[in-house]
Amino acid sequence: MSQIIAPRAPSLPIAPMGYSSIFHDQLNNVLRLYFNRLDLINQQLSQVLQAEQPAITTDFIDFNTFANYNDRLARMGWNGADATINIGMEYGVVQQVGQEYYARVRNSTGSDIPNGTVVGFAGAADDALLVTPYLADGTSPSLYILGIMTHDLPDSGEKGYCTVWGFVRDIDTSGFSAGDILYADPAVSGGLTNVKPTAPNNVIPVAACVVSDATVGVIFVRPTIQQVQYYGRFSKTTTATPAATDTAYALTFDNTQISNGVVIGTPTSRLVVPESGLYQIDATVQLTSGSSSAKNVWVWFRKNGTDIANSARLVTSDVNNGYVPLSLNQVTSLAANDYIELMYAADNTSVSISQVAATAFAPAAPSVVISVTQVQQ
Prior knowledge:
Layout (H helix, E strand, L loop, with lengths): L20 H32 L23 E4 L4 E5 L5 E3 L4 E7 L10 E8 L2 E6 L11 E5 L9 E13 L9 E4 L7 E2 L11 E7 L5 E5 L9 E6 L12 E2 L4 E6 L2 E2 L6 E2 L4 E13 L5 E9 L2 E2 L5 E5 L5 E12 L4 E8 L4 E3 L14 E9 L1
Parallel strand pairs: 4-6
Antiparallel strand pairs: 1-2, 2-3, 4-8, 5-6, 5-7, 7-8, 8-12, 9-10, 9-11, 11-12, 13-15, 14-23, 16-17, 17-23, 18-22, 18-24, 18-25, 19-20, 19-21, 19-23
C-alpha cells in the first residue's frame, strides 16, 4: 500500500480575554484547513484500497459444515451433499470445486442454446469460445466438440459456461436409463442418444446418464474424442479398353459406395484425401480378353501425378472371353488434398477392364473396386 502521512494537530491561536472577531476568523481558518486535509487523506485511502485490493493473510480457511445458506453470485460455502466447496456463478450456475470444469463460451447462433445441449467449437472472440449445437453426422470433425451447456445461454453477446467435465443437472433424461452411455446425436443438432452411431457419423461418447427424469435429470459429462480416420470405397461400373499398346491410362470412377472425407475429384480418376496421414489403398481390377493369345496388363498407383515406385502388378491373360482378377495394395503418406490414381497399360489392345451386369443369382461385378483408408493420423 502507498504511504499516506497523517496530518499533525493544528496549532490553534491563543484566545484573547474578551470577544474578538479576528480570533474567531483565525480559528475557523485553521480548522477548515485541518478538516480539508482529513478529507484528502480519506480520498487517498479509498483510492488505494480500490486499486490494491487488500487481502487477508492466513494459513487456512475453515468453512462451517453445518451452515444453512443460499447459493448466490460470488458466494462460497460448504456443500455437504457433494463434500466440496460451492462457488456461485452467473446464470445461477453453482460450481462444485474439483468436481466440475467449465469452458467460458459465447453464443452467436441467433437463438438461445438450452441447458443440456451438446455444443461444438464455432470460432473465438473476446476471450471466449464461440459455440453452436453439435451435429454428429460426419459433417464436422470430432475434434470440434467441446462439451454440454450447463445453463440456458441466450444469444445476447454475454459469456456463459459449458461443462467439459462434471455434472449437468435439471435436464430431461427421461429417454435414458441410469448408467446409459450417451453419444452426440447424428440426427438431432445438440442432442444426445444412447444408441451408438455408426460410420460415416461421428462416434463421440459425451456423457453418462446418472438420474433418469423428465425435469431433474442428471448426466455426468466426459467427452471421449478420437480423431476421425477418413476413408472411401469407390468403383467403376463401365468397361475400359486401351486405345494403344504400352501406353499409360488412368482409370476413372463413377460410383461412391461409402465415404468419409475421401472423395472422387476432378477429373474422376483422382481420389482426394481431406487430411494428412498414412493411407492404405486396396484395389481389385477385373480383366477380360478378346482372344486366346497371351496379353500382359500392368496396373499401378500414382500419387499427385507421379508413379509410386514399386507399386505395379503384372498379369498375363490368355483366356478368351474369360475373366481374370488382379489385386494390389499400397501404403503411402499423403498430405491434405493429395490424390491417388489407378493406372493401367497393356501390350495388346484386345484386352479390357470389364464390368459384368447383375444376374438373377448374383450382383453386378464392377470393373474396378478401390478403397482408400487412413490407418494413422
